[in-house]
Amino acid sequence: MTTYCKQLEQRTEGGIKERMTAARLGYRNQQKEEITRLKKELEAAKRRITELEQLLEGKK
What we know:
The chain is built from two helices and no strands. It is mainly alpha-helical. The termini are far apart.
């Protein structure tokens, strides 16, 4: 029965190679999303720095 369940699982989910590929791709997609979010955050921070520098120059 256990062997049958393992065979059935392998048919539905694929072998170890397919599972590892799926896990790797999932991790890469997660990294890409994080990088995109951080780039947007960096751009917002740079804009804010520019605004604050202009305020400081105006007060001098």
